[in-house]
């Protein structure tokens, strides 16, 4: 797969990172004091489980990213760490692609790999703008893209490809 046109987006929200760092610091102090006071093994196991959870969330945000690529007649995407292999949507399965504005909290309950109230699948890392893809199956997907120029370019390519495919079918 040619990765020269890959659009990639990472978690950049400063408040997420501050929250994670503060949580890690507070937890480290509590864990250190528990070890220093020779707490019961139960508490040390409990604190170890919490440490693993905090570390997992930290790693998720550190390495998490949304990648989108348009190659030939296929739209590829993956949301690391949930998708390690590229997922493919053939362009001939797309009815329409458009830019939309959304509220991640109200429309999808937050960021990440989400499902909206109306069943729309969303892959959102940051911001309030994305590409909405409507499929012939009746389903829709939203991919958060904060670079409007890239979003417009992708939409233009998708819609141009669909227009030329539909003209070939009519002939």
Bin the strand percentage: 25-35%
* Average pLDDT score: 80
- Main sheet summary: 5 strands, mixed
How far apart, in Å, are the first and last alpha carbons? 31 Å
Characterise this structure.
- This protein has 171 residues and is an alpha+beta fold.
- The chain contains 4 helices and 9 strands, in the order βααββββαββββα.
- It has a 5-stranded mixed β-sheet with strand order 5-8-9-7-6, covered by helices on one side. The chain has a 4-stranded antiparallel β-sheet with strand order 1-2-3-4.
- Helix 1 runs antiparallel to helix 2.
- It is elongated, with a radius of gyration of 21 Å.
- Mean pLDDT is 80; it is low at 167-171.
Topology, element by element:
Layout lengths: L6 E4 L3 H23 L4 H23 L1 E7 L2 E7 L6 E4 L3 E8 L2 H5 L3 E4 L5 E4 L4 E7 L4 E5 L3 H23 L1
Parallel strand pairs: 7-9
Antiparallel strand pairs: 1-2, 2-3, 3-4, 5-8, 6-7, 8-9
Helix pairs in contact: 1-2
Descriptive key words:
171 residues, alpha+beta, five-stranded mixed beta sheet, four-stranded antiparallel beta sheet, 9 strands, 29% strand, elongated, disordered C terminus
Write a compact overview of the structure shown.
The protein is α+β, with helices and mostly antiparallel strands and 171 residues long.
